[in-house]
Amino acid sequence: MSERVGTLVLGAGISGLSYAHTRKDADLLVLEASDHAGGLMRTLRADGVRYEGGPEAMQTGSDEADELVRELGLEMHTVPAEAKARYVVKQGELIDVPMSPPALLKTHLLSAGGKARALTEKWRNPRKALDGSVADFVRHRLGHEVLEALVDPLISGIYAGDPEQISLRGAFPEVAKMVEEHGSLMAAMSERRGKPKPSLTKPAGGLGEIPAALARSLGDRLRLSSAAKSIERDGDTWRVATDTAELRASRLVIALPPRAGGGRRA
């Protein structure tokens, strides 16, 4: 069976779903290899307990995110203060994440050398590593140990992603701005001490409600359990084969992890 669409989107994670949502009236089809939309952004339930399979909450302050949840008709709830604590498991022990210089000195997550490296942050070049990845920035300013022990787990909890692949300015523009304005993170934290901080928010039923609502809005323009087996360029047309159909599209959008989108397979 052969079908033709204007735009074909591969991947129904939050990126693919959000792109498709912005093109409500387009001749568009989204293919997803798994049996559910949302990718890692998924709220799971087991034995009476609800938990997030990927990112846990959204940070307030993004006009685009606020507009999206309003369009979807979702009611957002601020995460209670007691739920804002962050923990990392190290050698079977649950350790709270240090959120201030004094806490950094006391934490068991870092060695003495790692703490010393982090506390020299204010002497780092303030113009370096602002336009690369989160990992580049953290290694430069705070050291490799902070990246491995603290930042990598926290990035997984927020973005369910790899700090080596996530842009600092794209994901944390405020952090880059802090260094540009104050010369260091430590100086910025001292300046902002006592001021209100961005809060965390999520739908009442969990963060998975967002991709679920996006999927519902697409209706039959979303096909689950439809993996793309091959991709070919035929003149001005993209040809994508699945187990059940050959799809032809004028525009192809690949919203997949790099490891899934490489080569001729998706």
- How many helix segments? 11
User: What kind of sheet is the major sheet?
Assistant: 6 strands, mixed
What's the oligomerization state?
Answer: single chain
Strand content: 15-25%
What fraction, in percent, of the residue positions are helical? 25-40%
Order of strands, main sheet, comes to 10-2-1-13-12-11
Total number of beta strands? 13
Structural class: alpha/beta
Describe the structure.
35% of the residues lie in helices and 22% in strands. The protein is built from 11 helices and 13 strands. It has helices at residues 14-22, 63-72, 101-106, 112-119, 134-141, 144-159, 168-171, 173-182, 185-192, 209-218, 258-261; strands at residues 2-10, 28-31, 43-46, 49-52, 58-59, 76-78, 87-90, 93-96, 200-203, 222-223, 230-234, 237-241, 246-254. The chain starts with a strand and ends in a 5-residue tail after the last helix.
Task: Give a quick set of tags describing it.
about 270 residues; single chain; 11 helices; elongated; three-stranded antiparallel beta sheet
Structural topology:
Layout: E1 2-10, H1 14-22, E2 28-31, E3 43-46, E4 49-52, E5 58-59, H2 63-72, E6 76-78, E7 87-90, E8 93-96, H3 101-106, H4 112-119, H5 134-141, H6 144-159, H7 168-171, H8 173-182, H9 185-192, E9 200-203, H10 209-218, E10 222-223, E11 230-234, E12 237-241, E13 246-254, H11 258-261
Parallel strand pairs: 1-2, 1-13, 2-10
Antiparallel strand pairs: 3-4, 5-9, 6-9, 7-8, 11-12, 12-13
